Amino acid sequence: MSLSIEPVAPDFRDDLASDSKLLSRYVEACEKLTSDLPPRRERSVAQQEKAARAETAARGARHRFLDLHADHVHNELTDGRSRQVRLDELAFAGADRYPGLVPTRAEMAADQQLPQSEKSGGEVDQGIFFAHLLDRRDTGEHLLRSMLAPTARALDLLPEFRRTGHLDLGQVVIRRDGCVAEVTICNQHVLNAEDNGVVEALETAVDLALLDDAVSVGVLRGSVLSHPRYAGRRAFGAGINLTDLYTGKIGFVDFMLRRETGYIRKLVHGLNLGSGHRLLDLPGGKPWVGAVETFAIGGATQVTLVLDRVIAASDAYFSLPALTEGIVPGAANMRLGRVVGRRMAQRLIFFGEQVAADSPQALALCDEVVAPEAVDAAVAAAADRLADPAVPSNRRMLHLAEESDDLFRTYMSRYALEQSARMHSPDVVAKLERTWVHRKRKA
């Protein structure tokens, strides 16, 4: 089909049933404009422009449709907000109920087989969907509360964890010692970097620590590495697994959104166990100690911003190389300036500045710096202190004062748009390509 007969944009009339049909027909017509094009990386400049115009037109229609109907869409997919529906389930239910609004399960499964440079860009449409749901207070709060519910896997494993105090979740291990639950990231071959599997395992482990009444304090740390350069040393984490991002295995919903609204948010607020109607009704969670050894890079530094006590080895460092990767560093842009000040936040995010744990600047990122051999003792002492019964009430009030529910919801609404677009931006693909080639040459 020639662009000279491209479809006319739908005239939505604020009637959900008729508007959804208009959207579906229009998106289908836009997709037909590019159905005969070669794969993304093989397209000419003219073909790229043709595809971009069709995608932009379809996305504009999705924005306009959700401007009118986001509340009704969410209510229908959650039975009037009576069900807690997780991100992936909500997106796929939306695809089934409103064809053309978001990619189907089959479309996303096909995308997952492709490298990042060849993906369809359907995650951008998921970003539009969640941006509109989060932008509205009622739907956004319900979505955030739903993501604070314990996962089905955690509920299944809870009896065993209560009985044994130890579970190996594959890429994460959780062990209870007295009233302390130690959660250890075990992704050694990639320096304890995070991927879809790690995010899933971390959320399960955090849920177990929060569900187990015998646990008063959580500890988060990285395992001993197998990499020759760091053999025998623990590392807190190397951030996002860039190899997985390059090869298309990092999901926007399953990683980017789930990470922020799932386990990291649970570190702050605890779990939604079904009582009450607002985030303020949540119990407030349990205190967490972080053990930063060797390095906390990217996402690992992001996590330290929500922990209650951060112990760093004197030979460790922090960094947040967001521009090197080309993506938005989660909710760090919301929290980092409050912790270290705007100027230092910009140096970390824009210029990739590394902060040595034994430098004066690190005092804003960690609470205590000790010799590497003294980390275990310092973590144990911090956990003992935070086990005080007065801590949960005080941390609830601290979090209430510094990060309101509306602030987080609004931030995540914009984040959904920005991050989904960044993941599919040509400059991000080019940066990943350079990183991949550089690593292959070094290997």
Describe the model.
This protein is α/β, with parallel strands linked by helices and 443 residues long. 53% of the residues lie in helices and 9% in strands. The protein has 18 helices and 10 strands. The protein has helices at 16-32, 45-77, 87-97, 105-111, 122-135, 137-147, 152-164, 196-211, 242-246, 252-269, 299-304, 322-325, 332-340, 342-351, 375-386, 391-402, 405-423, 426-442; strands at residues 166-168, 172-177, 180-185, 217-222, 288-292, 295-297, 309-313, 317-319, 355-356, 368-370. The strands form 2 sheets. A 7-stranded mixed β-sheet has the order 1-2-3-4-5-7-10, sandwiched between helices. It has a 3-stranded mixed β-sheet with strand order 6-8-9. Strand 1 (166-168) and strand 2 (172-177) form a beta hairpin. Helix 5 runs antiparallel to helix 17 (405-423). The longest helix has 33 residues, at 45-77. The radius of gyration is 23 Å and the shape is globular. The N and C termini lie far apart (47 Å).
